[in-house]
């Protein structure tokens, strides 16, 4: 390890891989980094893609041990909680969409819940000011974490014992891992907030981090060991629960023992729809992801987008207007369906979606103030994280998990070593007040005790003839559904290679604010023409970190990791 650390290998390998053999076909230096980062791999037995090379490796090892895709996804997710503390987590929540080898479709909701003491106006001052500072940072921003409950719920479909799946994470926390330049910079940028929002200074607090430093997380390792030995109770009860509740007391938070003990992950009926013969399997409420994707895909379905071409003025404008309309519905209708009646059937019906597009004008921009819901960003670094896994038996898993903001509420539970989420900000804390992603909402997404805040996460599996074809997802707040939408359109309609579909610049419209965000590198001429049609354009840096596994015609798995981050693919 030491030797490798000093060497700082800097490599991206583009691999092709026949069953057990790998051939590096291209190699390039990009950044000071201590291990190879595989951006694309073609594999016959199984593949994993995630935001961190060590997490993808953990999943690969589990596949090689005889684990299935669920086993590997659990191991990858737990490893991410150690090596990608920005978003990988046990103090947050997420969603899993899976297609099992027997054809069964599964969706699992382990989204955070509002604590029992939460209430609708908890972030509104007596003078009516909405306190987004409190919903975004510090102890009060945190929902009751769901990740550990979700992992144990998903064990229903696992093959290997849990102790094996969590071991790579324990090892990485106990022995430490060497950080990259990017990781060092992100820890350095966090120091002020860490000091402000922590009652016990965590290991992340340090004069200066540099590439090559080793991050050891002993408290986190001990928490993971308790989870290994005691199951979900190792988190929701006993010493870990005590550490969380004591942390809440020290910092003015409201999560209680009962909140922790009562947390449940929920299997839900996946949101499934057809698109030109493909079956798209997505997440239902409390994520808006599946429904938004459904609406957007259906609004373009009959409009011959393939003939317009990738990033032509016409196709971008059409997709922008479709995104605008879907997000207007999000703000009005969507929230936790256990608490609010979301008219899913109505707003995804053909007649409704045709009606939504009645005022679409291909020659000019619509205006959001006139596009209301139908009848029936600030740019902090974006850190949710998505992973995909597939195995040789046809089990396919897509998981998106998050602390919300990068490093969540910036509070590490004293003595327990993990960051808490700031997911309460995903509720509509006051009607019309934008959350950190600029999304607004109202009654459907108002805070209530035990309710889950509306999400945009869109873990998605596309089936062709009933078999996995594309597994996809990304972080990016409200840009998540639009990035997944564009990636699928790129592959299915524009016939693009998976790398191009992922790497080419994306764009985003979310109804309000009424601006079209385009990623750096978006073609200038199209941008200028869109301006001429009346669109307010904003340029922004990376949109998402999309991970894709595609099943090739010969049955092999092509895994592509986004080049916007240090994301990595593995396979064998
Ligand atoms: O659930 C949601 O929609 C957000 N909490 C996701 C946050 C996110 O993607 C952050 N960064 N990429």
SSE blueprint and pairings:
Blueprint: H1 2-7, E1 12-18, E2 21-28, E3 37-43, E4 46-50, H2 53-64, H3 69-83, E5 93-99, E6 105-110, H4 132-136, H5 147-154, H6 162-175, E7 177-178, H7 181-197, E8 214-215, H8 218-230, H9 233-236, H10 238-251, H11 257-262, E9 266-268, E10 271-275, E11 278-282, H12 289-301, H13 305-308, H14 313-333, H15 344-347, H16 350-356, E12 384-391, E13 396-402, E14 460-464, E15 467-473, H17 479-492, H18 498-503, E16 507-508, E17 516-519, H19 524-532, E18 537-540, E19 547-551, E20 557-560, E21 568-571
The protein binds 6-diazenyl-5-OXO-L-norleucine.
Provide a descriptive summary of the structure in words.
By secondary structure, this protein is an alpha+beta fold. The protein contains 19 helices and 21 strands. It has helices spanning 2-7, 53-64, 69-83, 132-136, 147-154, 162-175, 181-197, 218-230, 233-236, 238-251, 257-262, 289-301, 305-308, 313-333, 344-347, 350-356, 479-492, 498-503, 524-532, and strands at residues 12-18, 21-28, 37-43, 46-50, 93-99, 105-110, 177-178, 214-215, 266-268, 271-275, 278-282, 384-391, 396-402, 460-464, 467-473, 507-508, 516-519, 537-540, 547-551, 557-560, 568-571. The chain has a nine-stranded mixed sheet with strand order 2-1-3-20-19-15-14-11-10. β12 and β13 (396-402) form a beta hairpin. α2 (53-64) runs antiparallel to α3 (69-83). The longest helix is centred in the middle third of the chain and has 21 residues, at 313-333. The model is unreliable at 1-34 (pLDDT under 50). 6-diazenyl-5-OXO-L-norleucine (DON) is lined by residues 382-384, 402, 404, 423, 426, 455-457, 475-477, 480.
